[in-house]
Amino acid sequence: ALLWLLHGLPLGLQAALGSALGRVLYTVARERRRISARNIQLCMPALSALQRRDLLREHFRWLGRSAVERALLWYASPERLRRLIHVEGDVQLAERSERPVMWLVPHFMALDVAGAATQLFQKRQVASIYQAQSNAVMDAAMRRGRNCSCSTNRSPISTWTCASAYRWRCGTSSDDPAPPPSSSRTTSMSP
Prior knowledge:
The protein has 191 residues and is mainly α. It contains 9 helices and no strands. Residues 151-191 have low confidence and may be disordered.
């Protein structure tokens, strides 16, 4: 409910609230902070302790911002999202291709932006892979939010696995059932 309330705020205010949340998370999420600090130390041994600490704090600010801005991605209108999301590259490639196109979209904090962008800027059927969260409350919230995202463009198929959907779309297996007739677009499929 809180995320829904945040989605209407201007993006700049969401960014400020998210950064503040990140500073709080840096303080209270000790185990996550310890793991992140160790990862930075292992991956960037040339950085000084002060540089690693600054990078860690910045990471948590972006983490908080990502959490708050997720409200925008999950609940804002497609029109607002189209105004805010800028996509570079040939996003219409899937429209011109006779074969399915697999988008490999690396992400860090802005996880759901890529999913929203593929739904908003192309007409082809879209599926994204989702890994269940270890926290059941967070998992339920993320699934609900992703099913709201760009809701005018989606007909989720929740009973298929991603692998089955991929095999069906690519014609690699005749055992897989055809998609339900109501699914002209799929933007989220979770096993």
